[in-house]
Specification:
mainly beta; 5% helix; single chain; 744 residues; Maltoporin, Chain A
């Protein structure tokens, strides 16, 4: 099987490269610069490799979404990125407030707050290592850069899946003010505004605010009570000091408070509660259910009739210093982030108290990076750096099983986790000829991860300590990348690379009565082979980017199940060996200034090569113990990921009597995928959005009419089964609204 996959990958790679080369060589080459006023596509400048360069020149699979596109594509948080980026999936296990990322099938599922993402997320070069921290990173954004494949050589944190770089708008030397005010279905209201300009000759500033209210689109199936109101407020302030033409100092501070409703789950199947109440499977997209016992409400400090809710707070700041000495540049980036999580979810989706969960976490991260790089000129370029970070994650969660069959208790699981990481990295680039470049980089990292004071205990109706531990894990791993890049015409180049990425190990901090559950799981390692072509054709009106890849995956981290005589518990496991392969195409076309379209399609497939796992056991009703534990050899079993996704958009730009009329539509398709947490298949889906922008003559305002989920599709995002009921989390139904934008 492996040899056939390698052969198939080689054939696909050669076909992609040959096709793009043939097309590119058949058209004339033009100068590198393209401006918005000229025909064709605009140049997109990115900093994905810690230097300013055209996105088309970066020899890796890269998707860039500009700030203006975020609103058109209905991207309001990191979860929404999956409908605009090839091979990306973002979902929240059990519908909670912690997103889990997967790029090209690389990623996991974990509802605890103490483990880092497989895909690195950065905001203005500061790492947000824990998923729950990323929920309101997307406001006043200049662009988002998504890199697919292992990262680490040029990044402070290592990752096997890829990186999401959020770049916020910088202060301006000219005064500017603007904002967007929106109103939509279910009384949803939002405001985003900014002001920027010079304070002195060398000092500029920018302040941005964001606020969201309303939007309760769900309703309780028993009482009709509404759920889903947002109550989120954020502010960010940036200062830029330029004491000389060679030195820039950026200061940034931000604060977010999120007191929104949580997401209600739906019943996947007919369900009868332990109290004897029967429910039919939910079919209405708006239907959900929840409940909270007086005891649990008092324990977590909530009201006796509390809905699912969040009461989260995030704050932090950073400083970035850049100096250009001519022959070399020095960059220092230092950041501090804090996040407080208080979140109540009802995971059985009914008024019965069989799986209520309350998270309480305090996260603090400190990071610092220093880079020294050569000037961006000449045939030889180099970069080297040092990265240091320290992270503290405290807290845990309460679980209300007071009405669950065979349990009828309340658990508390708590811990303190401390992580220290030090790494050194470097990268070299050498032009062998004016059109042929080779590059190579490496990174070595030491990490110490400690789990202190872990306790999993039943606190009601009678106290029982089920597990306690202090664990530690050390990692000494290297990552690296080697690549070759060939400009075979002036507007097209092909590249090939091999890279090794590593993602940290960690601890499974779930309710536990099993000592083996607390053993750390190991880091995962991935060796990636990638071949791609990037081209701009027909007077730069057509952009075609192709990539194909093969991943050799070792110690893949996977959420699984362990059985003992007395327990069935979840645990993150390591799969000894698996593999993935696939291909992607991104096409952007603007033959005339009045029309533009973008299309992307991605295919991926993976299998376990070595993976023996516990599969089932029988619970003896007399002894209450699990017996006859069964094992399954999963070698050759397909990885649980959607094999196909397709994203696209089309827009018109129509000047009519001085007015600008801009209709736009975008859509996304994701194939079905297997859900390991519910042992069933999540159906495929289509999602479509539409916008109509209207700008009056010589006016600084714009009116946009929009429809999200145009066809009111019932989209299942995740499926779950925690203790009793099988549930699904649902994407919001069709919503319509209007946005008034002002820029001056």
């Amino acid at each position: 099987m492996l040899n056939r996959n390698h052969a198939r990958l080689r054939r696909t790679s050669l076909l992609l490269v040959a096709s793009a080369a043939a097309i590119a060589s058949a058209v004339p080459a033009f100068a590198q610069e393209t401006t918005a006023a000229e025909p064709g596509l605009s140049e997109i400048v990115v900093t994905a490799q810690h230097r300013k360069e055209n996105a088309q020149d970066v020899a890796t699979a890269l998707t860039v979404i500009g700030g203006e596109e975020l609103q058109k594509r209905n991207i309001y948080n990191v979860n929404d990125l999956e409908n605009s980026v090839p091979s990306l999936e973002v979902d929240n296990q059990f519908g909670g407030g912690q997103p889990q990322f997967r790029l090209r099938g690389v990623g996991g599922t974990d509802y605890a707050a103490n483990n880092t993402n497989t895909v690195g997320v950065y905001v203005d070069e500061i790492a947000y290592p824990y998923g729950v921290m990323t929920q309101n990173a997307l406001f006043d954004v200049a662009r988002i850069e998504v890199l697919r494949g292992p990262q680490g050589t040029l990044y402070g944190r290592n990752s096997t899946g890829g990186a999401v770089n959020v770049v916020t708008n910088a202060p301006s030397h000219e005064f500017g003010i603007g904002g967007d005010l929106s109103y939509g279905s279910y009384d949803a209201k939002s405001l985003e505004a900014y002001v920027t300009g010079p304070l002195t000759r060398t000092l500029t500033a920018r302040v941005a605010v964001s606020a969201d209210r309303g939007g309760a689109w769900q309703k309780h199936r028993d009482t009709g009570e509404k759920l889903g109101d947002r109550d989120q407020t954020s502010v960010r302030a940036r200062l830029r000091w330029e004491p000389s033409s060679a030195t820039t100092v950026d200061l940034s501070a931000h604060y977010t408070r999120d007191q929104s409703d949580g997401l209600g789950l739906q019943l996947l199947n007919d369900f009868k509660t332990a109290g004897g109440v029967s429910y039919k499977a939910d079919t209405d997209i708006r239907t959900t259910g929840w409940g909270i016992s007086p005891t649990f409400a008092n324990l977590i400090g909530a009201s006796a009739n509390a809905k699912p809710f969040r009461d989260n707070e995030g704050k932090g700041g950073s400083v970035r210093v850049f100096s250009d000495f001519g022959v070399a540049t020095i960059t220092g980036v230092f950041g501090h982030e804090e996040f407080t999580r208080r979140e109540f979810n009802d995971w059985d989706g009914t008024a019965s108290n069989e799986a209520g969960t309350f998270f309480f976490n305090n996260i603090k991260t400190n990071s610092g990076e220093i880079r020294v790089a050569s000037a961006d000129k000449g045939k030889f370029r180099w970069l080297g750096g040092l990265y240091v970070s320290h992270e503290d994650v405290g807290g845990g969660f309460y679980s209300d099983f007071s009405q669950a069959p065979s349990l009828k208790n309340i658990w508390k699981t708590a811990y303190d986790q401390h992580v220290t990481s030090v790494s050194v990295f470097g990268n070299l680039e050498q032009y062998l000829t004016p059109t042929l470049k080779i590059s190579g980089g490496a990174r070595y990292e030491y990490e110490r991860r400690e789990l202190d004071n872990f306790k999993s205990e039943i606190i009601l109706p009678t106290y029982q300590l089920r597990a306690a531990a202090n664990k530690q894990l050390e990692m000494r791993e290297w990552s690296g990348k080697a690549a070759i890049d060939w400009d075979f015409t002036r507007t097209a180049h092909a590249y090939a690379s091999v890279s090794r990425g590593v993602k940290s190990g960690g601890f499974t901090t779930y309710n536990s009565g099993l000592p083996e559950q607390l053993d750390p799981y190991n880091p995962e390692k991935l060796v990636a082979y990638e071949v791609g072509v990037k081209s701009e054709l027909f007077d730069r009106t057509l952009r075609v980017n192709l990539a194909t890849f093969y991943y050799d995956y070792r110690d893949q981290q996977l959420q699984g199940v362990l059985y003992t005589e007395t327990s069935r518990v979840g645990r993150i496991l390591n799969v000894p060996k698996s593999h993935l392969y696939g291909a992607e195409a991104e096409i952007t076309w603007s033959p005339i200034p009045l029309f533009s379209t973008s299309q992307s399609i991605a295919y991926k497939y993976g299998e376990y090569d070595e993976y023996m796992a516990q599969s089932s056991a029988t619970l003896d009703p007399v002894s209450g113990k699990y017996v006859n534990i069964q094992y399954k050899d999963n070698a050759g079993v397909r990885l649980p990921l959607p094999d196909l996704d397709y994203k696209g958009s089309v827009a018109l730009h129509l000047p009519i009597a001085g007015w600008q009329i801009e209709p736009e539509a975008n859509w996304a398709y994701r194939a079905d995928r297997y859900s390991t947490s519910s042992a069933s298949v999540i159906p495929s889906y289509w999602l479509a959005n539409a916008n109509l922008g209207i700008t009056p003559p010589n006016a600084p305002v714009r009116l946009t009419l929009w429809v999200h989920n145009v066809f009111d599709a019932r989209i299942q995002e995740t499926r779950n089964q925690f203790i009793t009921a099988r549930t699904v989390s649902i994407h919001p139904p069709r919503t319509v609204g209007v946005t008034l934008s002002f820029r001056h």
